[in-house]
Structures are given as C-alpha cells and as structure tokens.
Amino acid sequence: MSQYYYNYPNGYRLPAYPNYAASPVANAFKTGAMIGATGATAINLYQWSKGQVEPQEAVKSVLRAGVTTGLAAGAAKAAGTLFKEQPVLSTLASFAAGTAVAYALTQPEEITKLIKTDAQEDA
Fold first, then answer.
1. Which of 20, 24, 52, 91 has the fewest CB atoms within 10 Å, i.e. the most exposed one?
2. Is residue 77 within 8 Å of residue 28, measured between CB atoms?
3. Is residue 5 within 8 Å of residue 14, measured between CB atoms?
C-alpha cells in the first residue's frame, strides 16, 4: 500500500496519484479541445507568417476551434455512453452527436434561420 503514497521525512503522507477522476465526457472535452486548438494554431501560425491573418483574428480562430471540437467531442462521448452495450449504435450516436454540435457551432446563422422558420410554421 505504501507504493501509492509519497512519504515525507516528517511522517506526513500524500497520495502519489490524486483521488479524483474526471468524467469520461470531461476527458473527451479536454482531448477534443486540445486537438482542435493545436490544429488551428498550426494553421493560423502558417497564415500569420504569410501575412494572411492578423494576430487577434488568429487567436479568436484558435479559441473557437478549441471550444467547438471540445464540445463536439464531449457530446460524442456522452451520446456514445448511452449505448455502450451496443457498439454499432454507440458509434453512430457518437458520430451524429459530434457532427450536430460541430455544425451548430460553426453555422450559427443557418441554425438561427432554421429555428425562426420552424417557429413561423408552428404559429
């Protein structure tokens, strides 16, 4: 049992590994955000070096990409978890949820138009 603790000379012991665990959805969000932000950073650095984008716009683009891919990955994980006993359905649900969230976040004008059209049809 002592292998999981760090023993200080004064007898105080701390766990070698923290006792908390993030949810799988939170982990998916973090991973997705990191992947999206690093990819966007690489693209924006290249564009900035060529004078094609201003630094402020590049930062906005990186943040937007990180949040979008993080939320899409979290939604995909959450949807896939609902059907974890059925691998094919889990994969399809993950794909659909991730795609829907990414689309909604990258096409806000289109989503707003759809919502308004549906509301007008219902009235």
1. 20
2. yes
3. yes
Taking CA 111 as the corner, what is the angle to CA 106 and CA 115, rounded to the nearest 5 degrees? Answer: 165
**What are the angstrom distances between the C-alpha of 89 and each of 69, 78, 114?**
22, 13, 27
Task: Please give the model's pTM, rounded to 2 decimal places.
Answer: 0.71
Q: What angle do CA 62, 63, 64 make, to 5 degrees?
A: 90
Contacts of 25 (CB under 8 A, 6+ apart): 74, 77, 78, 81
* Nearest-angstrom CA–CA distance, 43 and 15: 41
Q: Residues 46-94: pLDDT tens digits?
A: 999 999 999 999 999 999 999 999 999 999 999 999 998 999 999 999 9
Residues 6 or more apart from 21 whose CB is under 8 A from it?
none
Q: What distance in Å separates the CA atoms of residue 57 and residue 48, rounded to the nearest whole number?
A: 10
